[in-house]
UniProtKB/TrEMBL annotation:
The lineage of its organism: Archaea, Methanobacteriati, Methanobacteriota, Stenosarchaea group, Halobacteria. It comes from Natronococcus jeotgali DSM 18795. Residues 18-63 are annotated as: Disordered. It comes from the Archaea. Residues 27-44, 52-63 have a biased composition (Basic and acidic residues). This is Uncharacterized protein.
Length: 63
């Protein structure tokens, strides 16, 4: 789970570009790729807010 969290941290702010690349290289649409990234965030508790900031990660660091 830590490796997935680390990967999601690296993707932060680049989700749309990554989804586009996934779409180019696989049979998955950009929308499906983005949905998969969002699902992974939900599973790990790494949720983004509308402004792109990640309060969950910040709160975890403070504890």
């Amino acid at each position: 789970m830590n490796k997935l969290r680390r990967m999601l941290g690296l993707l932060e702010g680049r989700e749309n570009k990554v989804a586009k690349q996934i779409s180019k290289r696989t049979g998955v649409s950009e929308r499906q790729a983005r949905r998969g990234i969002d699902k992974a965030r939900e599973l790990t508790g790494e949720t983004e807010n509308e402004d792109g900031s990640d309060h969950t990660r910040r709160e975890r660091r403070q504890n």
